[in-house]
Write the structure tokens for this entry.
Amino acid sequence: MSGPSAPDPSRRSVLATGSALSGALLTSALTTTRATAADRAKAAPAEADPVASAPASALVSGDPWRTVLDDADLVWQRMPTAWHEGPFLGNGFLGSGIYAEPGATSTAVRFTVQHSEVQDHRPEFGSLFGLARLPIGYFTLEPVGVITGLDWRLSLRKAELTGTLTTDRGTLALRALVHNDRSVLAVEVTPSEGERDFRWVFHPADAISPRAAFKPLPDGYQGNPPAQVTDHDGITAAVQPLLAGGQHVTAWRERARGRTRTLYAHVAHSHPGTTALGRALQTVRRTEPLPCSVLALDHRAWWHAYYRKSFLSLPDARIQRFYWIQLYKAASAARRDAPVMATSGPWLEPTPWPNTWWNLNVQLEYWLIHGSNHLELDAVTRALSEFRDNLAQETPAPYRSDSLGIPRTTDPHLVNGAASTLMGYGVGIPGQDPPTPEVGNLTWALHNVWLSYRHTMDESILRDVLFPLLRKAVNYYLHFLEPGPDGKLHLPATFSPEYGGDSRDCNYDLMLLTWGCRTLLDSAELLGIKDPLAPRWREVLAKRAPYPTDANGFMIGADIPFAKSHRHYSHLLAVYPLYEVTGRTPDERALIERSLAHWVGFEGALQGYTFTGAASMSALLGNGEDALAYLGELMTRFIQPNTMYKESGPVIETPLSAAQSLHDMVCQSWGGVVRVFPALPAAWKDLTVHDFRTQGAFLLSAVRQGGVTRWVRLVSEAGAPCVVRHGIAGPVDVRDGRGRPLRHEDVGDGTVRIALRRGESAIVTAKGDRPELSVAPVRPNGAAPRWGLPPA
């Protein structure tokens, strides 16, 4: 269990370690540890202990990535009829979902064409209409005959859809991918004789906010004019002009090679200029000479390298497959240089939420990138840094000189638009209504940035992004914090996301303010900054009002008890993900347990991410059985056949956050302690993890066999303080990269403190034990259906 007896090093020692990666993570993808581990192995003496000195590459038995990825492939032997059933392809920018054409399920297959950069540019109508993501359109693959069957496979390892479509006139063998670098949808079709005359048809969408199907249009708002379809020397382009200036363009060409015909399609967007047409035509012109077999070479190389940055195998086959699909989905939807994921990722469908949501969705979407060692997907840190000037404009005017905030919704440039106050989505002013004062969103988003810092120890993230932005986010709170008759500092009424009603001393804000002040003080000390606001931050920590609680646990705020079904855990952030309240004492643990049970005890409004949050909080308490049960509820009640998730429309954050819940069961590293296998259910007797990235910039590998942790390996990238709760019973051996005993201190409860410098590694085993050091998939406990649509 991960609760009261954990060592609690000072936050300064937890944070400290200067500029370990020299800013590299902000500009380039992470490299794997294999090369550095191999270098260490070359330096090892011949007589080195084979367990402790094995390089990371030697840990691998066969090709475990190929094994788990091929096993996780989604399969379809029935026609998917909606976006939440079908295959999906993407590269963070261009996305395509594949399913039957509505109303023509036996005669056409839809390949959607959507792009994360395509949006409107009329801020006067707000982020959900005037700045909304705009639908682009779709291709239909129209066979000659009537569709009678299909057999498709989405290969995660290749990021490619292959299979056969059968009709009463023959077959269509297809192969489809969204190329990683070129952002081209390529669909290769080889027909039998009876299907030689199949055709492709492009259907431009109306360029209007998808929210128009759910909510009334703002006064004066109208859709953009229709797209204009023209030919350009054999390349067709659908040019969509925008009323605000600019355009987005879908360009495509079909190329025949013998009986095989390949469709190449690309989307470009420009504002306020009209350069998109030229760029789209140029991309198609450069790509269409290449057959899919050639395009696939560098496409696959990127994906193969991506997956090999980490490894996880567990004995629940259904959940293991789900996990690897989420890694595929994350890289299909996110890249550092792509827009921060909107609610539906790049796969835009009719939705009331056609933009980026900052009061939960963004945060949950990106949590899995840290443990899985995929910081190359971190668009949050990049976007908050790049567009910080826009955040000032989204803050109420009297406070813009020294404060920042982010509204509930923005476009990719962090702009909400002039209609924000009219629509109730602005940051708002505490104690005033309207608009609803939803103040904590930026601070919560910056917690994601802090996680990127902690998992890399890249001081440039702390210095250039986190500290200056967090300072101004917290400063906005300080304008309104006032002493009460009890001598405590209190907040006027603010809003806890989604619960309804404003409350004084709202837990959402008090919890984020506490984390923010503490992090600012620690960061300033680490950076050597003598900040004049530091005394005020200390005063807040010493005097702020206690978190409001009652007999049922944490309240929404001082004025509002938690008394109705509520999907959001905005009132519990101090528990998770902030880890400010962790159960260090019996009373604190009881408070968490009481709050958690009360929250999930109200049926009615609970949604998928309710159960991912509950799973992670259970993992914090070391309750692996409860965590698995909550994930089971999620899978049974909410996850769709292709692992997507929907409420009124598509929302991508919940399945991605379920992957993080699995991370929290397998490894936790809050508070300066790396906890190995802290919350596993009894059924998970075997488990393998490799190159899992933890706070402190450690890469963790570990193997559990027969319910016993056999070995734990940590590689330090930054030389940060290393404290590991290894979970191995009894005395342990700790050895360095050359097999020599490594200086360490037993601090109790299965925890050791290891003197580990940057670039060094340590392996922990039971004393005298020399287990085989290898990373391989574990045997599943039983058979499980694949994701997708197997036969009825």
In short: The first strand starts at residue 74 and ends at 76.
